[in-house]
Amino acid sequence: MKAPQDVIIRPVITEKSMAGIANKIYTFRVASEAGKVEIAKAVEELFGVQVAKVNTISVRGRSRRVGRSTGYTSDWKKAIVTLKEGSKAIEFFEGLA
């Protein structure tokens, strides 16, 4: 079992993810080998909230070019976490929305 800080890498800050905050839906970049149960426990432990469900997406790396050289961005995993009705909002996101 990994520490919660090793499971949740960072929040994903996009227009779409910020729109979900009103409905208590939060998006995080997570460790590639983390499962849904592990992600839910990590979010509950780190932020002191109750998780209703977790959806995960494996994001494929894309081809990128800088001048003549080409390469790939790394593959990563995204988790969309929905909180339970009675649960409070995550304070970290309050100033961003």
UniProtKB/TrEMBL annotation:
<keyword id="KW-0687">Ribonucleoprotein</keyword>
<comment type="similarity">
    <text>Belongs to the universal ribosomal protein uL23 family.</text>
</comment>
<keyword id="KW-0694">RNA-binding</keyword>
<dbReference type="GO" id="GO:0005840">
    <property type="term" value="C:ribosome"/>
</dbReference>
<dbReference type="InterPro" id="IPR012677">
    <property type="entry name" value="Nucleotide-bd_a/b_plait_sf"/>
</dbReference>
<dbReference type="GO" id="GO:0006412">
    <property type="term" value="P:translation"/>
</dbReference>
<dbReference type="InterPro" id="IPR012678">
    <property type="entry name" value="Ribosomal_uL23/eL15/eS24_sf"/>
</dbReference>
<comment type="subunit">
    <text>Part of the 50S ribosomal subunit. Contacts protein L29, and trigger factor when it is bound to the ribosome.</text>
</comment>
<dbReference type="GO" id="GO:1990904">
    <property type="term" value="C:ribonucleoprotein complex"/>
</dbReference>
<dbReference type="InterPro" id="IPR013025">
    <property type="entry name" value="Ribosomal_uL23-like"/>
</dbReference>
<keyword id="KW-0689">Ribosomal protein</keyword>
<keyword id="KW-0699">rRNA-binding</keyword>
<dbReference type="GO" id="GO:0003735">
    <property type="term" value="F:structural constituent of ribosome"/>
</dbReference>
<comment type="function">
    <text>One of the early assembly proteins it binds 23S rRNA. One of the proteins that surrounds the polypeptide exit tunnel on the outside of the ribosome. Forms the main docking site for trigger factor binding to the ribosome.</text>
</comment>
<dbReference type="InterPro" id="IPR001014">
    <property type="entry name" value="Ribosomal_uL23_CS"/>
</dbReference>
<dbReference type="GO" id="GO:0019843">
    <property type="term" value="F:rRNA binding"/>
</dbReference>
<protein>
    <recommendedName>
        <fullName>Large ribosomal subunit protein uL23</fullName>
    </recommendedName>
</protein>
<dbReference type="Pfam" id="PF00276">
    <property type="entry name" value="Ribosomal_L23"/>
</dbReference>
